[in-house]
Amino acid sequence: MNRTQTVSDRSTAAEKTTRPDTAAEARDTARAFLSGLAPAPTAEAAENVVLVVSELVTNALRHAGGITGLRLTANRHTVEITVQDPSPSRPRPRHPDITGYEGGYGLTLVNFLARFVTVTPSPEGGKKICAALGI
Questions:
Q1: 4: which residues sit within 8 A by CB, 6+ positions away?
Q2: What is the 3-state secondary structure (H, E, C) of 30-82?
Q3: For residues 106 and 50, which has the higher predicted lDDT (pLDDT)?
């Protein structure tokens, strides 16, 4: 079930919290969030944000038992993406599958695009993964 809440405007900060059921739904949420920012992020920055959202949500769905929350926040210079999942296990980089069938590129890509990535235990159980990108 998708639950969405939007708070504030970009003059101070923008925030959206939701619980998408799929990576596609998370990408759509990120695009809608970014389209409401003023000034708008560059096309490259927006594509990077959508890609990181997709990777983090896909990893939570595939490897961590689902997604319990997606939070997007923005100020004039940064978008923070926080994905919460029910697993207490920290994500582990995998060796990429060069045939393209098994993945393994996600965390490496997220770490490359983000200014920083943090993993913290969630008080409700599980963990929160936060990635900050310049816009």
A1: 16, 17, 18, 29
A2: HHHHHHCCCCCCCHHHHHHHHHHHHHHHHHHHHHCCCCCEEEEEECCCEEEEE
A3: 50
